[in-house]
Amino acid sequence: MKILGIETSCDDTGIAIIKKTKADFEILAGFVSSQEKLHSQYGGVFPALAKREHQKNIIPLFEKALKKAKMLKKADALPNSKKIQKLKTILERNPELFDQLKTFIEKYKKPDIDCINVTIGPGLEPCLYVGVNFAKALGFYWNIKINGVHHLEGHILANFIGQKVNIDFPAIGLIVSGGNTQIILIEKIGKYKIIGDTRDDAAGECFDKTARLLGLGYPGGKKISELASMAKTNKFNISLPRPMIYEKNFDFSFSGLKTAVLYETKKRTKKELLSDTYKQEISREIENAIVDVLIKKVRIAIEKHGAKTLIIGGGVSANKKLRQEAKKLAKEKAVSLDLPKIKYSADNAIMIAIISILSPNYKEKNWKTIKPIANLKINGK
Ligand code: KG4
């Protein structure tokens, strides 16, 4: 069985093709087209622009993935004109995508794909629509069933890509990305309960917004983390709050931290703000503040629920400091720790393609029933 994965929930266009094997799965192709450069001019993701880029990039990426998977075969018949008309209706809001898909169908024949997994949420609605409409168009034209899958379940299951996973239940899942920060109680794969969430900004968003305040560009997480690692001391004259760290719940609030950074910068002279030392030290303090809160909440979640495993996913899980502190915590609490390979921590379509193999939550559906849900919760509510 071959599965096509499609990911367009934010600013990365992802296409992957995997093959279900007896043991688990084999990756036949996996490509991501990042829009980082484009959005860096605006200091954050601009949904209308992101939608436009997904529309532009998805077919070239699909073609590249099919070629890599050796599944790209020249057409031996003319396209069905009635079906092409119907495709136009399915893609009426994505005319550029329709034109490209029509050309693709004229050139190539139906690839040997048995099922399509597409992210339906959570994410930016205009972006989700591109992936979902594309999946529906393929599902209709080639009569392929579709799974509308949950992006954050993908981030949890990204741990299964390219490595062995030790996971004993119950497990605590920490999802840290640009749009989400959640602590999830995992009874087994497919059975999730959100026990902590952010009340405002996500951890990645806080990295990105504070980086923008400091003029470091977008996405900020990686830049803050690099600068933080250059700071020569941990004892400096900047002190930022650890929002909600003493509250006995698992929720987060990172927008206050961003405001605190703004006030902190207002106390400094232009010369100080531009100095490498200041940038490194404030980056270190921002990173420390975010990681301290994440680790504290995860620690109490592990204690309260008697968790045996800590599993982390999402773009911020690439953060070195978070990885170090999670390792220390896992050792202290004698729980196993799963961290995704760095290259699979950010948005990608392999994690979307493998979901329906690993999770019992999906039953393939007809293309007509699939629709995006921007604020989709992991337990379906
Ligand atoms: O999961 P992801 O690729 O996209 C979303 O679904 O949001 O996460 C992107 C987020 C961005 O906010 C980015 O700044 C952050 O992950 N990020 C990092 C690091 N690498 C990426 N944050 C902290 N440290 C990093 N090394």
Quick summary of this structure?
This protein is an alpha/beta fold and 381 residues long. It is built from 13 helices and 10 strands. Helix 3 packs antiparallel against helix 5.
Describe the structure.
It is a single chain. The protein folds into two domains: 180 residues, 2-Layer Sandwich (Nucleotidyltransferase, domain 5), CATH 3.30.420; 174 residues, Nucleotidyltransferase, domain 5. Helix content is 44%, strand content 18%. The protein is built from 13 helices and ten strands. Strands 3-2-1-4-5 form a five-stranded mixed sheet, with helices on both faces. Strands 8-7-6-9-10 form a five-stranded mixed sheet, with helices on both faces. The protein is globular. The chain starts with a strand and ends in a 23-residue tail after the last helix. The structure holds 5'-O-[(R)-(carboxyoxy)(hydroxy)phosphoryl]adenosine. The site of 5'-O-[(R)-(carboxyoxy)(hydroxy)phosphoryl]adenosine has 19 residues, from helix 7 and helix 8.
For the record, the count of structural domains works out to 2
Question: In CATH, what is the class of the largest domain?
Answer: Alpha Beta
Classify the helix fraction into a percent range: 40-55%
Do you know the CATH topology of the largest domain?
Nucleotidyltransferase, domain 5
